[in-house]
Amino acid sequence: MWREKLPEIRRIAESQGLQVRETAFHEVTAEELYALAATRLPGMYHHWSFGRNYELERARHDQGRGTIYELVVNLDPAQAFLLDHNSDAEQVFVAAHVMGHVDLFARNAFCQEQRLDMDRVLHAARQRFGEYEREHGEAAVEAVIDAAHMLMWHSSAIEPAAPRPVADPPPDPYQALFPDRRASTDAAEGRYRHDRDRHRRGIGEGDLLRFLMRHAPLEPWQRDVLGVVRETALYLLPQTRVKILHEGWASLWHRRILRELHAFAVSDVQDARLHAAVAGHPGADNPYWLGLLVLEHLEAEGADVLALVRGESDRSLLERIDEKLVREDPHLREAAAGLAGRPDPDGRPAWQRLRDALAGSLPSLPEVEVSVEEWDMRRLVLRAPVPVDEAYGRAVLSGVAALWGGQALLLTPTQELGGAA
After folding, report:
1. Contact 117/274 with Cβ under 8 angstroms?
2. How far is CA 74 from each of CA 14, 103, 321, 356, 419, rounded to the nearest angstrom?
3. Listed range (204-218, 225-239, 252-266, 298-312) with the worst mean pLDDT
4. CA distance 410 to 419
5. pLDDT tens figures, 378-393
6. Rounded to whole angstroms, how far apart are CA atoms 124 and 44?
7. H or E element at residue 140
8. Average pLDDT taken over every residue of the chain
């Protein structure tokens, strides 16, 4: 019955200014939905970590710490997976919520960084990985995936800028009288050749999988595995920046769509949906509530939210929290009151400290920037600007060393960690 309302839900969404791409709706079991949540993409290759993620998702559900009603994936067409035991009213509610997600896929700059054929990329990769397992053994393939997963968040679609060659100076008939001019040009040319050599060798590269694919002595199948993991990371990274924005935007529009649809009283399901035990951030009940709260406040203050969210991220959205919003919302006001009695070295008022704490609590990937310092065929040296957890650092370096076929070192301001193949 709920599917009969999809055309009307879409019509209302579009009449309110939303851009709704073609979307395939699937009803799936709880086990299937949590398996999708564990991999975050349909068609994902096999790896033990996804089984671990599945058990964690199921445990959260079984312990009453969160229920996933739907999962929407930015593909072409967009894919919406709905829990099959939702009631018809809940499915209508969730379908309206999906409209907001699909619009943000088309509207937001971070979402547009995602390739829309990623499911097909992964489906083909899973078949190739199976062939690699038969030829080289499951343990060998899993070891490469293990190492790649440790490095996957150190990925970037941006190539390091190549140095610019020194422009030839115009003819100088007085050059013999001023030898310092020639010396200056020679020095600039020397710096360019030095920088060009470093660029070609990947010195300073922060995309560690890209560096290994280009410079490590890998077999073709190993390079393929690293490439697939890197493409997966490049797909997933943008959505880590817009989780709160996504849920707030979808919540904003499902309210409006349902109000016009007159399908049922919005509050019947809305309370359960918005106040489910969803993993949130300090001071916030959950990302649905927080994103919706800020967006509605900005709109009430005169912002064109349809235009605003094009370049917005979670961080920039939370940085728009102002004193008026904190004063008017009881949850934020209470959280700010808890900070008021604590001294602040910068003298910031409590509302500003709360805003900064919310924005500062957002996850950042990678947590530590690491770049290539130097290398030869026996040793790879990486550098990080801050100290790292020693046990984890050595485990990662062991995986890097195995791919490099030699020794891997990580230098920080206070550490020199190593791993060997």
Report:
1. no
2. 18, 10, 28, 30, 38
3. 252-266
4. 9
5. 999 999 999 999 999 9
6. 10
7. helix 138-151
8. 89
| Amino acid in position 421 | A
State which amino acid sits at residue 99.
Answer: M
Token reading at 49:
């970590």
Query: What contacts 24+ positions apart, CB below 8 Å, involve 57-65?
Result: 58/34, 61/30, 61/34, 64/277, 65/277
Classified as helix, coil or strand, 370 is coil
The candidate with the shortest Cα–Cα distance to 6, out of 73, 80, 83, is 80
DSSP bridge partners of 26: 81
Query: In this structure, which amino acid lies at residue 161?
Result: A
What is the band of 258 on the pLDDT scale with cuts at 50, 70, 90?
A: very high
CA distance 385 to 328: 41
Sheet holding 379-383, edge to edge: 371-375, 379-383, 407-411, 416-420
State the angle between helix axes of 208-215 and 390-404 in degrees (0 to 180), rounded to the nearest 10: 30
- Look-up: residue for tokens 């919520």? 97
Alpha-carbon gap, residue 50 to 47, rounded angstroms: 6
**Inter-residue contact 185 to 166 (CB < 8 Å):** yes
The answer to whether residues 73 and 33 touch, using CB atoms and an 8 Å cutoff, is no
DSSP readout, 58-96? HHHHHTTS----EEEE--SSEEEEEETTS-HHHHHHHHH
Report residue 190 as tokens: 């020397």
Tokens 């490049």 found at: 234
- Radius of gyration of the chain from its Cα atoms, rounded to whole angstroms: 26
Q: How far apart are CA 56 and CA 118, in angstroms?
A: 25
Whole-angstrom Cα distance, residue 160 to residue 151? Answer: 18
In this structure, the strands spanning 78-83 and 70-73 are antiparallel
| Residue type for position 302 | G
Whole-angstrom distance, CA of residue 369 vs CA of residue 322: 31
